Amino acid sequence: MTDITSNRTTASWRDFYEMCKPRVVLLMLFTSLVGMFLAVPGMVPLNILILGNLGIALVAGSGAVVNHLIDRKIDVMMKRTHNRPMAQGRIEPLQATIFAVVIGVVGMTILIRWVNPLSAWLTLGSFVGYAFIYTGYLKHATPQNIVIGGLSGAMPPLLGWSAVTGTIDADALVLVLIIFAWTPPHFWALAIHRKDEYAKSGVPMLPVTHGEFVTKVHIIIYTLMLVVVSIIPFLSGMSGLLYLITALVLGAGFIGWSGVLMFKPKPSTAMDTFRYSIVYLAVLFVALIVDHYLV
């Protein structure tokens, strides 16, 4: 792999943008939007819709930059991450630190001043959980890192909900629980595909420490848990029959992919399962919105 100091060039705005993990942040904003829309019977106030998601995005981007900063030495060892701006030396640690602080402070200011304090502090808690507890400690401390650290990544629906209502409600926590249960099978499928790279980097991901078979068993267990958790919105009255049918069909598909991964895997099966998991979450949350407004 390229040495971390061997490719120093002038940083561009794209490098700073890439450090914010825009695709991950967009998925977070999507689930935040769902939380916002489910929190009210009608339309979300426009100022909250815009400023709430802007603040959440900036703080989430700040956490992503801290992730790049902490992981820059192991990123260079992995094919998936070795071209990242810090791994290639295009951005210096001090530059990244200043950038993370600036966008994080701006995001928090927006949330505190123009949204509400609860959403701001919940967003800050999510930032600390991801940037420091997960990336700085759990990721390198235990093969259950993604399970324990997954809570911070599951927070966006609650962040969106609290931005609108200023409260923490049971239905919002159900949305958090769905993403919390979804995260391990989603990420472990990718970890199986990237097992050799994680082994080389020294990150104790479950496929590295306990092998693929144990990881696949865990994926099946958590997928079954996810299917059960995913029907809670129907049982609690938050959603109706359309959502229930969608959740069961999607869940059957996820179980099917988990079964193929366990019993009839091909070289592409782990990544196919990973990709399906993204489609699963997106369609599931779209079904929540459609059911909420149109049924």
TrEMBL record:
<keyword id="KW-0812">Transmembrane</keyword>
<feature type="transmembrane region" description="Helical">
    <location>
        <begin position="91"/>
        <end position="112"/>
    </location>
</feature>
<feature type="transmembrane region" description="Helical">
    <location>
        <begin position="213"/>
        <end position="235"/>
    </location>
</feature>
<feature type="transmembrane region" description="Helical">
    <location>
        <begin position="24"/>
        <end position="44"/>
    </location>
</feature>
<comment type="pathway">
    <text>Porphyrin-containing compound metabolism; heme O biosynthesis; heme O from protoheme: step 1/1.</text>
</comment>
<dbReference type="GO" id="GO:0008495">
    <property type="term" value="F:protoheme IX farnesyltransferase activity"/>
</dbReference>
<keyword id="KW-0808">Transferase</keyword>
<keyword id="KW-0350">Heme biosynthesis</keyword>
<feature type="transmembrane region" description="Helical">
    <location>
        <begin position="50"/>
        <end position="70"/>
    </location>
</feature>
<feature type="transmembrane region" description="Helical">
    <location>
        <begin position="170"/>
        <end position="192"/>
    </location>
</feature>
<feature type="transmembrane region" description="Helical">
    <location>
        <begin position="145"/>
        <end position="164"/>
    </location>
</feature>
<feature type="transmembrane region" description="Helical">
    <location>
        <begin position="274"/>
        <end position="294"/>
    </location>
</feature>
<comment type="function">
    <text>Converts heme B (protoheme IX) to heme O by substitution of the vinyl group on carbon 2 of heme B porphyrin ring with a hydroxyethyl farnesyl side group.</text>
</comment>
<dbReference type="InterPro" id="IPR006369">
    <property type="entry name" value="Protohaem_IX_farnesylTrfase"/>
</dbReference>
<dbReference type="InterPro" id="IPR030470">
    <property type="entry name" value="UbiA_prenylTrfase_CS"/>
</dbReference>
<dbReference type="GO" id="GO:0048034">
    <property type="term" value="P:heme O biosynthetic process"/>
</dbReference>
<dbReference type="Pfam" id="PF01040">
    <property type="entry name" value="UbiA"/>
</dbReference>
<feature type="transmembrane region" description="Helical">
    <location>
        <begin position="241"/>
        <end position="262"/>
    </location>
</feature>
<keyword id="KW-0472">Membrane</keyword>
<keyword id="KW-1003">Cell membrane</keyword>
<protein>
    <recommendedName>
        <fullName>Protoheme IX farnesyltransferase</fullName>
        <ecNumber>2.5.1.141</ecNumber>
    </recommendedName>
</protein>
<comment type="similarity">
    <text>Belongs to the UbiA prenyltransferase family. Protoheme IX farnesyltransferase subfamily.</text>
</comment>
<dbReference type="InterPro" id="IPR000537">
    <property type="entry name" value="UbiA_prenyltransferase"/>
</dbReference>
<dbReference type="InterPro" id="IPR044878">
    <property type="entry name" value="UbiA_sf"/>
</dbReference>
<keyword id="KW-1133">Transmembrane helix</keyword>
<feature type="transmembrane region" description="Helical">
    <location>
        <begin position="118"/>
        <end position="138"/>
    </location>
</feature>
<dbReference type="GO" id="GO:0005886">
    <property type="term" value="C:plasma membrane"/>
</dbReference>
